[in-house]
Amino acid sequence: MKELHHAEAGAGMPLVLIHGFPLDHTLWHHQLAGLHDVARVIAPDLRGFGKSPQARQVATMEQHARDVAQLLDRLGIERAVIGGLSMGGYVALAFAELFPKRLAGLVLCNTRAVADGEEARKTRETVARRAIEEGMAALAPILVHPLLSEPTRKAHPELIGFIEAMIARQDPAGVAASSRGMAMRPDRTPMLGQVQVPALVVTGSSDTLIAPAESEAMAARLPKGQLVTIPDVGHLSCLEDPAAFNTAVRDFLKRVK
Ligand code: MLT
Q: Whose alpha carbon is nearest atom 4 of ligand 1?
């Protein structure tokens, strides 16, 4: 595969931030702008998203994790803090399982370790088909709604348009490939207890897609886990309250060696 596209800013400890579904690296623009004094922030577009090469039929979380490892190779980076939001968190967990020695820390935002149930798997296939048949511009207004909390939608209505445009510009084939890939991911709950590096779990008190209780459970299983719940924030914590999010990551990075 050709290499992943990425944006980066800053120097020091590499901090890889992996976007959610069906988004791209621009989700992290406040982190690229606001954390570059404490880390080398690296935000890739996963294959099939943004400006990265196209995906084939199915893009598994393990495949995405290998792509991230290849990107690190290309950048000459051996160890990094790996972070991800939602689907990006599934990829970060796959990375932690595949490349534990390359992990300096883990940042899991609005995500979960458990696999999809049967209903969720069916929905993944429906989303994949609809992306291909109807196109992303048709799906964007439907998909954007549950991502942001009610308070965010009221206080920052401009974010609705920002996210909707991000979804609308994604390649339908890439979206379908990752939707199918997410359906295939295993339950990674058992490996949480083996993560030896510091881990930050971030959630929003108003995340309706992945309930804060799931994040609490995940943080409790991580031996060096720490939970931060940002008030009034939904599924896109890094974008909905960047100041609180960046403060949490800054504090966390002090624990990482
Ligand atoms: C995401 O934001 O990446 C998605 O909500 C993940 C998912 O559908 O499980």
A: 21
